[in-house]
Design goal:
The protein is α/β, with parallel strands linked by helices. Helices cover 47% and strands 15% of the residues. The longest helix is centred in the last third of the chain and has 17 residues.
Length: 331
């Protein structure tokens, strides 16, 4: 997976190129109270060139988070509010006839941005969801007979509300698999909630400005791709994924009746990519088991199908993942 690298040189390179991370975190914390995990997850997705699916009730700063990140990275940001009457053309764009030129012209949709917020993605029908997910996977959009590459970096943050089910179209498992991470956002603490009240009563929020350019982000993404993953770590990642498919081979007989289907090979790829990004956040040029464990729940929770028996007993995917991490041998 990784070419031989000089770890010391890579550590020095990471140290010299990671200053912007603290500035991004500071900028985010000026606008967002708490939600450290949300901020770190967005940074992991950005560094690993992936996308994030956020699940949480309204009002937890999901929209504000990606809008603030786009400002700090000096990138274009677009928000798409998904509704039941949305069409694929409303996302990717369409051909419009020009009477003056007597020809069809391309009108690009809001997906042509660096940071795209797909708000309440589960409110739109499958055809619209697939239009966005195709752009996420291929990093390009076809309108008519022309294909347009999307600008880099390209990060989609989709949100879904876990409470309201009426009038929603849950994402099929094959589509949620396209997201590098699925992050579950919880309520703030009492102290954080009081701080939120104070900030909103105070009026105007602090002004923030860009601290890093798009080209610098692209360079850092290339550095993240060089972070060393030892074969023992590769085996550890594969063991975790295979434990979701063949739990009995890992002494997890209790999980056999709880898992309907295991994680796909995309889970192994995503676990390696997210672990590298997490190692970069820690200032390291190599991945250790703790990096894999730190990102495992976010990478795996939307890639494991649970049986009716698991749902009937209120057993969530996170509990299954925790059992696997406790059982699989750490290198």
């Amino acid at each position: 997976m990784s070419e031989p690298v000089n770890i010391r040189e890579l550590n020095d390179l990471i140290a010299s190129r990671s200053n912007f991370l603290s500035m991004i975190r500071t900028g985010m914390q000026r606008r967002i109270v708490g939600q450290k995990h949300l901020i770190d997850s967005l940074l992991i997705a950005l560094l690993a060139n992936g996308h994030v699916l956020l699940e949480g009730v309204p009002g937890l700063a999901k929209t504000l988070a990606i809008k603030t990140l786009a400002t700090l990275v000096d990138a274009k940001y677009n928000r798409i509010q998904f509704t039941p009457d949305l069409l694929p053309a409303d996302v990717i764009g369409t051909l419009i006839y020009s009477i003056k030129r007597e020809t069809f012209e391309v009108k690009k949709g809001p997906v042509f941005a660096n940071f795209v917020l797909a708000d309440e993605i589960n409110r739109a029908p499958a055809k619209v969801q697939s239009a966005l997910l195709e752009a996420m996977q291929e990093r390009q959009v076809t309108i008519g007979e022309e294909t347009f590459p999307l600008d880099r970096p390209f990060l989609v943050m989709a949100t879904q509300n876990p409470i309201e089910q009426e009038g929603t179209y849950p994402l099929p498992e094959a589509q949620t698999d396209r997201f590098l991470l699925k992050v579950v956002i919880g309520y703030p603490t009492r102290e954080e909630e009081k701080e939120i009240i104070r900030q909103n009563i105070a009026g105007a929020a602090d002004e923030i400005s860009a601290v890093v350019s798009k080209s610098e982000i692209l360079e850092v993404q290339k550095i993240v791709e060089k972070i060393y993953i030892d074969e023992k770590i590769e085996n550890y990642i594969v063991d975790i994924v295979f434990a979701t498919r063949e739990p009995q081979k890992y002494g997890l007989n209790d999980l056999e009746d709880l898992i309907d289907y295991g994680a796909s090979p995309r889970a192994s790829i995503s676990l390696a990519k997210a672990s590298r990004a997490y190692a970069f956040l820690q200032g390291r040029g190599y991945v250790i088991p703790e990096d894999v464990r730190a990102v495992c729940h976010d990478v795996m929770r939307h890639r494991i199908g649970l049986t009716y028996e698991a749902e009937a007993n209120n057993i969530a995917a996170d509990e299954v993942i925790t059992d696997i991490l406790d059982k699989v041998k750490v290198p």
